[in-house]
Amino acid sequence: FFSWWNSYDKAISYLATVPKYRIQAMEIAKQQGLLRKAKEKGRNKKSKEEIRDEEENIIKNIIKSKIDIKGGYQKPQIRDLLLFQILLAPFHLCSYIVWYCRWIYNFNIKGKEYGEEERLYIIRKSMKMSKSQFDSLEDHQKETFLKRELWIKENYEVYKQEQEEELKKKLANDPRWKRYRRWMKNEGPGRLTFVDD
């Protein structure tokens, strides 16, 4: 948990050094009047280093409140720890069984049409992505998936083929990939030769 917090703090510190985010955070701080208060307090009692540290903390706090970091550097939560996951495993198992029974009853037995959530779930499973990976995708990508009706297996197969062809075209034009292919063709990863000297 502490390691997770450390990673999160490092990510926030890094974002505070990126000009794009730093400038936006400073604009927000000026609008809220937070930077002026730090400077006014600093005139009477604090040194320049203390004022700078206070301004840095204000910028980091604004970045924490405005940016939603996902993935390995997301804000740690106690419920994501292994101990709590183990304690909550029976509950999650029961809720999954109930959800699965409803799924079979509604869509296999009754033959209902899929809603948006169900469609996105089927697309995510087809793409073999975890929930957090799929949630980190932008909304316009999800809308594109829905417009192309990727929950239908045939449409997903066509989409997958298009993506593979696009990747091959990209790699064919990439100079690093060309250099790697030449190296593999000419020298290889380490050939064994049986030449007597």
Automatic annotation (TrEMBL):
One GO term of the biological process aspect: protein folding
Domain of life: Eukaryota
Gene Ontology CC: membrane
Subcellular location: Membrane
Keywords, ordered alphabetically: Chaperone, Membrane, Transmembrane, Transmembrane helix
Transmembrane parts of this sequence: 81-100
Family matches, as PANTHER family: DNAJ HOMOLOG SUBFAMILY C MEMBER 25 (PTHR44176)
Protein name (Swiss-Prot/TrEMBL): DnaJ-like protein subfamily C member 25-like protein
Protein source organism: Equus caballus
